[in-house]
Amino acid sequence: MRVGVFGGTFNPVHIGHIRGAISVYESFDLDRVLFMPTGIPPHKKDDVAPAEYRYEMLLLSIDGLENFYVSRMEIDSNRVNYTIDTIKELKKEYRNDEMFFVVGTDAFFYLELWKDYKQLIDMVSFILMRRPEYNVSRIIAKYKNTIEFVNVENRFEGAAQEKHTYIYTPPAFDISSSMVRGKIKNGETIRYLVPEKVENFINEKGLYKI
Fold first, then answer.
1. Non-local CB neighbours of 204 within 8 Å, separated by 6+ positions
2. What is the CATH number of the domain that holds 81?
3. 76 vs 40, 46, 71, 101, CA distance in Å?
4. How far apart are alpha carbons 5 and 33 in whole angstroms?
5. How many Å apart are CA 153 and CA 31, to the nearest integer?
6. Domain contains 8
7. What pLDDT shows up at residue 44?
8. With contact defined as beta carbons under 8 Å apart, do 15 and 44 qualify?
9. Is residue 127 part of a domain?
């Protein structure tokens, strides 16, 4: 089985997250997509909705998507979450499976700040989701001595390899969680920026207004 793990705060999940995940699922011929919302983020601490709410919004956003799942692993750990620890646990569950960890360019640029990042590179293949306008040359130059970078144009063929990062540009959705939160604070509509069920949940719980 081929598994794609999407880690993040998802504060809140938006259409860009979901459409990006669908695109990766199709282009990398994945058998399963696993969203991994962090419980206690190691870096982001301000303006983060409760973990249970972020988990519920993810469940609402993937309703009806076959082979898409949301894990409670990091939420239920009740500790600061580091990717290396999560991947070690997932490797026990998916012992004989191919695994990709999907990450955005902004987060990946600071990979050297992640806990035990060199060990992490040895354990899992990365899919680097690139925005069309983002120049990845700085990232490649920064990690060229430790990571093999491979461009994936349309479809990925072959097997996942450790120490490899696959650069993939999904269809452009110029949306961010901070944009969504900003619109809510300003009293603006978030219609079509997040799934309708997520919009209803945010309104019901009164999230991100302060």
1. none
2. 3.40.50.620
3. 10, 20, 9, 20
4. 6
5. 20
6. yes
7. 58
8. no
9. yes
Parent domain of 9: 2-174
Q: How far apart are alpha carbons 96 and 91 in whole angstroms?
A: 8
CA-to-CA dists, residue 63 to 67, 69, 77, 141, angstroms: 11, 9, 25, 40
Percentage of the chain exceeding pLDDT 70 = 98
| Nearest CA-CA partner of 87 in 1, 6, 2 | 6
| Position 88 pLDDT exceeds 90 | yes
State the Cα torsion 90-92-96-101 to the nearest 10°.
Answer: 20
100-147 per-position pLDDT tens digit: 999 999 899 999 999 999 999 999 999 999 988 889 999 999 999 999
Question: Shortest CA distance to 20 belongs to which of 6, 37, 10?
Answer: 6
The span from the first CA to the last CA of the chain, in angstroms, equals 43
Q: Does the pLDDT at position 158 exceed 90?
A: no
- The answer to whether position 180 is within a domain reads no
Calculate the CA 117 to chain-centre distance: 17
